[in-house]
Design a protein that fits this description.
The chain is mostly beta strands and about 120 residues long. The chain has no helices and eleven strands. Helix content is about 0%, strand content about 50%. The termini are far apart. Strands 2, 4, 5, 6, 9, 10 and 11 form a seven-stranded mixed beta sheet that branches. A hairpin with a 6-residue loop joins strand 7 and strand 8.
Length: about 120
């Protein structure tokens, strides 16, 4: 069984940075595609960054130029989300998941809370 674990969140001031880590522990075959999502209470979970099966990256418009996703070279089950220039509207719980055919592969992890506030 695959357990997805996210970490790296915290409380930061506007303009600061955070680096999130996601591990899909127990995955026998590393997912070709992975995505970072975020969710604000009462809202749908939204996809903010994706590593496609073709090894390209795509970002939701509001985070373009500020967020950068990458995959660990040694452990393909690990992905990062570098978040720079954080804004209060980035405050959310951040999750990741493997993707195939546009669908998530694993049960959702607990996520990691990111709070941007002065």
């Amino acid at each position: 069984q695959v357990h997805v674990v996210e970490s790296g969140g915290g409380l930061v001031q506007p303009g600061e940075s955070l680096r999130l880590l996601c591990v899909a522990a127990g995955a026998e075959n590393s997912p070709k595609a992975m995505g970072w999502y975020r969710q604000i209470p009462g809202n749908e979970r939204e996809l903010v960054a994706v590593l496609t099966a073709e090894d390209s990256f795509a970002y939701e418009d509001s985070v373009k130029g500020r967020f950068s996703m990458s995959r660990d070279n040694a452990n393909k089950n690990m992905v990062y989300l570098q978040m720079n220039g954080l804004k209060p509207e980035d405050t959310a719980v951040y999750y990741c998941n493997g993707l195939s055919g546009g669908r998530t592969l694993y049960a959702w992890g607990q996520g990691t809370q990111v709070t941007v506030s002065s």
